[in-house]
Each structure stands twice: as C-alpha cells, then as structure tokens.
Specification:
Distance between the termini: 16 Å
Family: Belongs to the gmhB family.
Structural class: alpha/beta
Radius of gyration: 15 Å
Mean pLDDT: 96
CATH architecture: 3-Layer(aba) Sandwich
Organism: Succiniclasticum ruminis
Low-confidence stretches: none
Number of helices: 5
EC number: 3.1.3.-
Strand content: 15-25%
Strand order of the largest sheet: 3-2-1-4-5
Bound molecules: magnesium ion, zinc ion
Largest sheet: 5 strands, parallel
Helix content: 25-40%
Order of helices and strands: EHEHEHEHEH
Number of strands: 5
Protein name: D,D-heptose 1,7-bisphosphate phosphatase
CATH topology: Rossmann fold
Main location: cytoplasm
CATH superfamily: HAD superfamily/HAD-like
C-alpha cells in the first residue's frame, strides 16, 4: 500500500497572479501551468490543498462568504482541467485588524504552521510525505515549522516547477 501524499499550495502568486486582496472571480488570472500542476499531482497520487492568508477579511475588504465562493469557483475551474483541490484552508485573521472579531493573534496565519498542521491531520499524511509551494518566504517558514519541506516559487510554469520538486523528492509514481 502506498502512503498518502499531500501537496500544499499557497494561493495568491502560485495558483493565481497575486493582485492585492483578490476577491472577484473575474479578476482571477491563472498562473501558467497551475491548473495542470494540480491535475498532474492528482495523477501522481497526491491530494492537493490550498493554504492561504486572507487578511482582507480582517481588514473589512470582503467577507468569509466571498472567500468561500471564490474558492468554490476556483475548485470548479481546476476540475475542468482534470484536477481536484481537496480542501481550502484560509486564515481570515490579523492582529490589530479593523474588524474586531478577526483581530486575533491566531496560529493559522502563515508563517505560523496552523493551517498546514490541520491539513496533515485532516488528510492523515506524514510530514515527510508532504510538501508546500509558496511564493513568499513566510510560506516556506510555515511549512518548515510544520516539519514539511517548503519550496519558494519565483515564477515560470508551475507544472514544471512542481514536477521538478516531486521528482527530486522521489515521490513520483511514473
Ligand atoms: Mg502568495
Ligand atoms: Zn488565522
């Protein structure tokens, strides 16, 4: 029996081009190869989850419902490319935030590892069978704090980037 494998992807700057406080589907511009990367990961036996800081909620720019609706739409778009996002984890918090209920020094806002630890637990995956790709050092820091290898994506085709990681980690199945 093969062990369960998990890929954790940051959202803004990895799946979609990072536009400040993105919340509308019409503003989503997919990073080249991002949807294809998810489909490929699935074929390699990985479940794929998204871990994203969304302080726009705490800042009062949009609500959690808006975040969830955007994520449902993104999951549906990825599905059209043959991939599945198994779950989205987002942190709506920010210390000192304008919206009082989200003014929380939480454990989930990256570089803290809360979302990653939650995903490992939810999907029953060992840290050594997981990796994270993000475009910010705080993504990598969060991964390492959870005992997961983190990789800094700095541009280019995401499928190429992800394939190199999986082959180097020898977690590929073909
Ligand atoms: Mg990012
Ligand atoms: Zn949080």
């Amino acid at each position: 029996m093969t062990e369960k494998k998990l890929c954790l992807l940051d959202r803004d700057g990895v799946l979609n081009v990072d536009k400040a406080y993105l919340c509308k589907t019409e503003d989503v511009e997919w990073v080249p190869g991002s949807r294809e990367a998810i489909a490929w990961l699935n074929r390699q036996g990985f479940q794929v989850v998204v871990v994203t800081n969304q302080s726009g909620v705490a800042r009062g720019f949009f609500t959690e419902d808006v975040v969830r609706e955007l994520h449902d739409w993104m999951a549906a778009e990825v599905k059209k490319s043959g991939g599945e996002i198994a779950s989205f984890y987002y942190c709506p918090h920010l210390p000192g935030a304008a919206v009082r209920q989200y003014d929380v020094d939480c454990d989930c806002r990256k570089p803290k590892p809360g979302m990653i630890l939650q995903a490992l637990n939810d999907f029953d995956v060992k840290p050594c069978n997981a990796f994270l790709a993000g475009d910010s050092p705080r993504d990598v820091e969060a991964a390492e704090a959870a005992g997961v290898k983190g990789f800094l994506y700095t541009g280019g085709n995401l499928l190429d980037f992800i394939q190199k990681i999986v082959w180097n980690l020898k977690l590929a199945e073909d």
